[in-house]
Amino acid sequence: MPSGFEAPPTPAVPDGHLSAPGPVAPPILEIASLAVGFRHRVVQRDLSFRVRRGSVFAVMGGSGCGKSTVLRAIAGLLRPFEGDVLLDGTPLWRLRPAERAALGRSMGVLFQNGALWSSLSVAENVALPLQLFARLPPGVVTELVQLKLALVGLPDHGRLMPAELSGGMRKRAALARALALDPPLLLLDEPSAGLDPVSSRRLDELVLELRDGLGITVLLISHELPSLFAIADDGVFLDADRRTAIAHGSPRELRDTDPDPTVRRFMHRDPDRLPAAGQSRPAEGDLRHGF
Amino acid sequence: MSGLASPRPAGVAEWTVSRRELDRPVLVLSGRWTVATTREAPGEVASRMHEVLGEPEPFGIDCARLDEWDSLLVATLWRLRALRGFDPVELDLPPPLRRLLALTTSPGTDLRMPTVPVIRRSIVAHTGTTTLDAIAGLGGIAMLAGTLLRGLWPRRTPAGSREPGMQGRDLLDIFRRHGPAALPIIGLVNLLVGAILAFIGAAQLRRFGAQIFVTNLVGLALVRELGAVITAIVLCGRTGGAFAARLATMGANEELDALSVLGIDPRRFLVLPMTLALVIAMPLLYLYATAAGLLGGMLVAVNLLDLSASSFATQLVDVVPVSQFGFGLGKSVLFGLLIGLVSCRIGLLAGRSAAAVGDAATRAVVASIVGVIVLDSVCAVCADAVGL
Questions:
Q1: ipTM for the complex?
Q2: Which among B159, B249, B261 has CB closest to A75?
Q3: What does each C-alpha distance from B143 to A82, B136, B137 come to in angstroms?
Q4: Structural domain harbouring B289
Q5: How many CB pairs below 8 A link A and B?
Q6: Do the domain assignments include residue B128?
Q7: For chain B, what is the domain count?
Q8: Over the stretch B325-372, which tens digit does the pLDDT of each residue have?
């Protein structure tokens, strides 16, 4: 674990959800000394953090810093160079493929572009995981699919094909599919990307409602500051140049108190240097600050 | 001294260096510094400015007579900045121009366009690499075939449920789209091939009064070779390309990843029904294609050689034993398997871009056709060895 990072106290988990936490419940997800990349190129290394149950944990950072690569390692899609992903204490990458696949189903993944299966209708997209893994009677599957689509605000769109949906509707349909097996952990890869501000806000609210209502934990990959400030209560900041996490904390904490110039530039949407926390901003007319 | 950025009439880009200030030279810019009014490279203009300005000492700039400017002037000053290292904030430039220059934070001097490195390899190295790639490709196809074979009998997961695999409705859907839907094109092509064979045969055999042997030519060629090969080549283009493009598109849209995170193997879930549908469809299409080709040959024989349909059929039954149909059927099964494996493997390994999808479709068609021809040659040698 990196110095200076301590897992915050675990919040109470609503009754009837997940495994009952003890006095201090173990994290639902722990990343231990992870190094990920492609071929011989390391994208992120020495990455360690814990995700509390019931929290919305944000993996932040600029474009190209490796956020989605980290998510692929967590989701079981990309074997890390080093380290492991501990899901409920079980090291994901030490398992055999069949066991890893079974454990991976306790995570729902919302991909950046939705990744709905284009040859299936919206309802069939949500139904497929249930049909393959839940072993339920068809009538029950149908009702569960209707419920999931209603939860995401698409109760009458089940018969449509993915190509017939708008960008925001596609994201919500993909969210319904990610929730199909009632996973305790939801991974969201850039959920607001490509959405207008209103759709983005609605999706943020939906994520919070689902978190509160279903008692799930959310790991959010994003660089959309409004979304991060709105829903994330913990997080880690990845840096592309240093190829590791350079800050831990909630987005608001990082914005207000983190002394690292890279973090401050990102959190204040300022491409130029900012003074350390507590100092004044540069004069508005300074030409170095662009237009 | 002065210079023109371009040999144009008055109003074009023009510059002079004035020594009116004792302590430093002043670069006076005037006219229209736009891409439309000059053809001279900004770097060349900047080099001459640098020479005229002299040693890299502070200089002033006068833009009072500058009528119009665009990125040409920005590029010129950027190059001048690279040569002299000045800070644009210190110059009396129009504010928008100064801001643009300030954005060009890196005053690098190497402004050559990046070139794609050409990797030169000897013929021996190239041959070796290509051979190793081909062997690796064959190995990959064999491994995919093994995975699909195991997928026919799904195992139990540690939790006791069956591993998710091929869906029966997917198999039927793919079979319908790539089997019966291909009948018109396959029928037409094979009808014409049969007719062409009969035309060629008629022209030669009529000279010897051996018209009846047109039936031998058409029958043996279609039943033994062309019925299966022509059908396979049509399916390479129609089905192999479609399979590769579909899988490549699914990869680019993360749909394959969405399957993998659920523990669903795309090879068993997608590739198995695709390949199995082709293996089932190919023998049926072969029979249909052969019938169409024979019909084409018979039409030509009846109309050009005055053979009757019954004599054509009788001769056909005499010269084409059932074993030849068996040989053609067996080859068509192998061709279906080959097209499915090759095109699906190429689709699965495609890159994640629109260009990669098109590239995968093209490669799948080419590789499948070459594979079909090679496999047909191997079958011909094997059949000859066993006396078939």
A1: 0.77
A2: B261
A3: 28, 10, 10
A4: 139-154+163-385
A5: 73
A6: no
A7: 2
A8: 999 999 999 999 999 999 999 999 998 888 999 999 999 999 999 999
